[in-house]
Prior knowledge:
Molybdenum Cofactor Biosythetic Enzyme, Chain A, Molybdopterin biosynthesis moeA protein, domain 3, six-stranded mixed sheet, binds magnesium ion
Amino acid sequence: MGCCDVKGLMPIDLALTKMQAELTNVCQSITLPLSQALGAVLAQDILSPLNVPPFNNSAMDGYALSHADLNICSCEQPIVLKEVGCALAGSPYIGDIPRGCCVRIMTGAVLPTGVDTVVMQEQVSVSEEQLTFTRSPKFGDNVRLVGEDVMFEQRVLKQGHRLTPRDIPLLASLGLETLQVFRKLKVAVLSSGDELKSLGEPLNTGELYDSNRYSMIALLSRLNVEVIDLGIIKDDKSALKEAFIKADQQADVVISSGGVSVGEADFIKAVLAELGTISFWKLAIKPGKPFAFGHLPNSVFFGLPGNPVSALVTLYQLAVPAMEKLSGMAVKSAMRFTAIMQDDIRKKAGRTDFQRGLYFVDKAEQIVVQSTGKQGSGIFSSMCQSNCFIVLEQDRGNVMAGERVTIEPYTHLLD
Ligand code: AMP
Ligand code: MG
């Protein structure tokens, strides 16, 4: 417990730990062609079926020779060798290479038997099949050895790893046409609120456009899940109940925004309690205090607050790691580091703040961070002006310019 725990509000670390403990992978393994596997989560360890490179080969266009041959030449004299053939990528030289001879070789060509060193062509002068080297190479220069990148049976990636654009070419180099991955998590999203309008509809007094569903769908598309969009649901208990039942039948995860607080028209918790169970509600974070986590008969439920910054912050900080676990992914902690705060910022002890900041390297080569200004949970433009969260610990109060703070740069899900 921290010194500033507030009764009834759960610290975020405890909420994250509880969710990880309650959830397991719900996605079965499927086979996918490598070409469709970007962003998928591996359901298998990948052991290399071959050596990469599969054969010793030249890293340069030049001449392949036996280093031992250089000893027959005197140190003061230039080294002179005779060219006896040529090796191209995909077209190996097959034949003997007598002592005192070398082979013209191109980048990627198999290193012929009997030679061990390549001299780049820029360091060779050629006349009448006689090659003169001005500089003596070291043994093994410019040779790429079999398996020096990946060894046969080496584990290159682990189950639970989400495939990035860097992994796909590596797996292609191993000749893997198909992979075992976990199927996509199915996530149903809905916005709740009588005041919400869909884009394209005119706004009457007191109404506003539903932006949270766009937040959810945009972030979820980066998370590589299958999104089921259930639209806007009125602040009406039976309409919400009907929507929850429909969502629960189709999806592994149901996410709502709005209506999860303690207002007259906030029915989300009541519906969740009637149809399933509430695991926790109300967190010691800012923004995003009224965040609900629970279970419906077939799915896991996240109730995001309606304020747009709160909705996105809780989706990112809380629901994403939980959905990663449900997807079979090995959940990693966020990358955080220390920066020097450039402004005074106000904070009350009692909740962990996720303020929006802009970090950069200053002239003194220090990592510094600026506040984006107003931090209200409805100031969504602060998300767009920022590139990181300034994470202010639960027990911390006001921060003065010059103090060190923890920052968390946005990942690809927000950037
Ligand atoms: P609630 O959590 O339902 O009490 O809503 C809190 C605030 O967020 C209110 O000002 C709502 O109008 C606003 N809000 C709720 N849902 C959305 C939404 N989907 N898009 C934009 N603003 C919303
Ligand atoms: Mg509402």
